[in-house]
Write the structure tokens for this entry.
Amino acid sequence: MNKLAPAPSSPPTSFWLKLRTYFFTGILVTAPLALTLYLSWAIVIYVDHLITPLIPDAYNPNNLLPFNLPGLGLIIVLITFTLIGAIAAGAIGRYFLNISEKVVGRTPVVRSIYSAIKQVTEALFHTSSSAFREVVMIEYPRKGIWSIGFITGTTKGEVQLLTEDEVVNVFIPTTPNPTSGFLLFVPKADIRHLEMTVEEGIKMVVSAGILTPKYTGKAENPFPSRAD
């Protein structure tokens, strides 16, 4: 009578496979939080090193306390900007602001730099501005290949006058650095509007498409037969 063959034992690597899985899971959970805390702390320390030396020794809390106050420079920056905004909103502040802008406007080189920075700042931070308020998709760099872009405004001036169609300013960011990219003047008919937010669009660009927001079906679909 033949003896039954022994049952195969479980792979000896199953224990190490679980440990490996736990290790990488720990990295995925810890890395985003750790990097966020590290970058936030680095920004706070950097601002502190820039601002706190400007405080007179007699009024510097770090000299009066037995320890340094982290974030003191950042708090001072926030308070300073708030006070400047409150003063600039008043009649006296607007008067001195107009005088300073006239002086800067008469300086040959400085006026060009100041004008460009002012226009970009107003476009980005003004509440009524449409800059970077919408994510779109256009065929770029050639027909049949699509790229994600951000509408920065309606094209005006000479560029619009020299084009047959009504065009829109579209900024195409690069991956993984979205601060660089290309400015394109795209006809409205060639733009596909997306429902994702600007934050979601930037995340998708930075992650090279790894972080793709969910689609709820609210945005326009020029190809109804193609469903996600």
Remarks:
- The first strand starts at residue 135 and ends at 139.
- Residues 114 and 131 are 20 Å apart (CA to CA).
